[in-house]
Amino acid sequence: MTPLRQRMIAAMQMRGFSPRTHASYLAAVRDLARFTHRSPDTLGRADLQGYFEHLVIERRLAPASVRLSYNGIRFLYIQVLAWPAVDLDVALPKRPQRIPGLLTRAEVAAILGACANPRYRAMLTVCYGCGLRLSEVLALRVSDIDGERRLLRIEQGKGAKDRLVPLSPTLLEALRAYWRLYRPEDWLFAGRTGGPLSPTVLQKAYTRAKHQAGVTKDGGIHALRHAYATHQLAAGLQVERLQRLMGHRSIQTTLRYVHWVPGAGDGDGPLDLIARLEVSHG
């Protein structure tokens, strides 16, 4: 490992970056070095500009990929090599503003109902009922459930922040039924080895259930988190409260859901989305 790579890893560790951010930022710098055939600490502004022009014009990378590379390289030069700024003339491609195929309550109910495996169905139900990310569902432990206060603790979610999410009575009872069936001791949704399930396993379970339910809208399991947000807003939940429940660092991330839900109201909307599913599906 080169000294520069060690310094970059140490800088990311000091800032509490997630393992995924570590990997993506290091990959961005590695690709830069491969393209230029030089160590990044010997490059100048013109070299960086030429590299990003290569990514945008020649390789035609997706906007998200270019921005991820830009953020990783910018971190190296500003936080590790102490450049005052990374100000390039290359215009990064704008993110396309698309509204995803939002699931209705009936479609969510159909997907959950089509999932025959009780463990996977419980996991998908938690995804929707609490608006969790896939990684957050996989990381849940039995001790994260506070049945007395009806809260679910999300430990070190995105951004390395803990948060508490309300557990509706219907969802809490579903989790109790799941526990009686599987009797997990540590990880709530343990795999065969006793550790957390692989993300691919649950992604495939969701895709299979969606296909069997006849739902043709695009999107993977993250659509359940989108559905949670849009259904809560439609029920009248305040945007600021939704931001806390979703674990968004910026309110701007949460506000995009407002644009997807015309007529979203204010107030303390109902949180028991699972019960509302049963009513709409029944």
From TrEMBL:
Domain Core-binding (CB) span(s) in chain numbering: 1-81
One GO term of the biological process aspect: DNA integration
Gene Ontology molecular function, alphabetical: DNA binding
Domain of life where this protein originates: Bacteria
PROSITE patterns the UniProt entry points to: CB, TYR_RECOMBINASE
Keyword line: DNA integration, DNA recombination, DNA-binding
Keyword Lipoprotein: no
Gene3D superfamilies: 1.10.150.130, Intergrase catalytic core
InterPro entries: CB (IPR044068), DNA_brk_join_enz (IPR011010), Integrase-like_cat_sf (IPR013762), Integrase_catalytic (IPR002104), Integrase_recombinase_N (IPR010998), Integrase_SAM-like_N (IPR004107), Tyrosine_recombinase_XerCD (IPR050090)
Coiled coil location: none
Domain Tyr recombinase: 98-272
Protein name: Integrase family protein
Organism: Thiocapsa marina 5811
